[in-house]
Write a structure and sequence with these properties.
about 375 residues; alpha+beta; Nucleotidyltransferase, domain 5; 4 domains; 6-stranded mixed sheet; 5-stranded mixed sheet; flat; binds adenosine-5'-triphosphate; binds magnesium ion
Length: about 375
Amino acid sequence: MLQPKADTKRNKIYYGHLSIFYERGDLPVAFLDRFSRDMGIDLGTANTLVYVSGKGVVLQEPSVVAIDQVQRKPLAVGEEAKRMLGRTPGNVVALRPLRDGVIADFDTAEVMLKHFIRRVHEGRTLVSPRIVIGIPSGVTGVERRAVMDAAQQAGARTVYLIDEPVAAAIGAGLPVAEPTGNMIVDIGGGTTEVAVLSLQGTVLSESVRVAGDELSESIISYMKKVHNLVIGERTAEEIKIAIGSAYPSLDDNEIGMDVRGLHLLSGLPRTLYVKTGEIRESMAEPLAVIVEAVKRTLEKTPPELAADIIDRGIMLAGGGALLRGLDTLISHETGIVVHIAADPLSCVVLGAGRVLENFGQMGRVFSAQSSG
Ligand SMILES: Nc1ncnc2c1ncn2[C@@H]1O[C@H](COP(=O)(O)OP(=O)(O)OP(=O)(O)O)[C@@H](O)[C@H]1O
Ligand SMILES: [Mg+2]
């Protein structure tokens, strides 16, 4: 693909053989910007977010694609497709192409990425962009390649990969460039990543494939086992967000909600009232896995950096950080102050965006780059 080049001495922009003169005072940068839309992408298990250079976060959609299996084409992508999860007729499937933070269904992931990138381009033909993508730190080389390939197939010129904890920390406003230890815990849909960062790099990190999805799944199992009520993934997530909590509180017995599902014994739909306390207990196991990951990382942290973390506290990011009482639970278990990022769901994409806007100074943060 051609790249526009500016000659500021002659006030000209070259685009292949084509050259365009611009008036003195007009910023060639603004002109170039019309051709190129560099992007930061958080390709998450649950949500995909896109940041466009010079604009900010322009897209935030669930990572779901609905496909018509007869015509073999996508029917809906994002929010619209998520509404179809578990509600599709025989010939339509609503898929989540990512599982555990990595691409599980390559073709569908590519369809989704292409769709989002096209939507961000607003139908204009543009120079293929540079794309910075956040990926979990624990993924294999093959999984990295799959993410890069999908982005290139979707039209990226060069793909840069950034470890999600690094991006999340930058997005949460932590001073990652300083020689100070910072701990970030990103609890997404598929993975929980715990990392200690200093000087723009990862000192140590741990990634467990237990996060928000697993919490919802525990609610599904609990409802089935204890109440004989079968509920879907969406309902379980709604319960988690509405009344889920990680730490006991005084009003535990007062908070609850009606849940609709299919009663196993009668085979009929039924509404049942559940309380926040039982929902918390149902999530105890995955919550313990998350807490253990934080503790293990703390135990391995070199003393100077551990001292910094005690001073500065632990930063929570990712949608899971919004679970009521999770900060209290982690703080209680580790004895360290826990903060929640201002916008936990956007940390990774905001971090990728910051890097994009400061390419020169922050180039060191990338963990991989495609040729191009
Ligand atoms: N208010 C809330 N309370 C509890 N959980 C929430 C809340 N809001 C969102 N979540 C959960 O956060 C998760 C999604 O978070 P996020 O968008 O950070 O994940 P992701 O980046 O797509 O996943 P990953 O990083 O694992 O690939 C989902 O499991 C969702 O149920
Ligand atoms: Mg994430």
